[in-house]
Structures are given as C-alpha cells and as structure tokens.
Amino acid sequence: MGLIIDTNVFVYWERCGHNIDFSPWEDHGEAAISVVTASELLVGVHRADSEARRQRRLAFVESILTQIPIRDFTIEVARVHAGLFATLTRQGQMIGAHDLMIAATARHDDCSVLTTNVVEFARVPDLDVIQLPAR
To answer: How many domains does the chain have?
Structure first.
C-alpha cells in the first residue's frame, strides 16, 4: 500500500505556492513518485521562460527528487503496463502515455494515485484514484 503522486499535483502546488504536504493521505502509506513524474518535472525546469523561474523551479524539483522516493519503471511494471495498454485500447479508453506508465507503477506497487486528473486515471481498472482538493 502507498500513494503515487501524479506530476500535476506538484505543478499545482508550485503554481499556488503551497508547501508539499502528504499528511492528509498518510493513511494510504508512503508517498512516492514514478520515475516518469521525475522526468516530467525536470522537463518543466528546462522549459522555464526565464532564468529566475528556471532556478526557482529547479530548487522546487530537486527538493522533491531528494525527499520523495522514486519508483522505477521495471520489467515487472512494464508487464502491468502492457496489460493495461491492451485492456484500455480494446475498450476504446486509452489514456496518455505518461499517465499510463504512472498508473502501471501504482497498480504494480498496490498504490493509490493522487492527481488533479481523475477523469483519465479513473479509466484504469482496479486503480484507486484520489482527487487533489483545490485549496
């Protein structure tokens, strides 16, 4: 049991100036991120539109990467991913490639997903999806 945090949660918190706080969901177990989220956050650093914003974003992302466990995309996760891909394609319910990898990581590790994108993640069978409440 655990909690996989979707990239958009961190993007929301950064834009709103919120502190990173998983205490409302501590009953779900340890919070972690997929290696895909790590990559997406780092892309955001590279895409910053000014040096000042890049530096602020880099500090924010590095604090995440050093404090929150990162779950790798292993062959075992790839097997879950392949099964989900086939199921969602067959049902005509495919989700974004990165979200599917995050979902596969969560399913493999028996974790819930905390996200602002419930509509997409809710398509994944047997995935517990938690909506990040707006603050």
So the answer is: 1
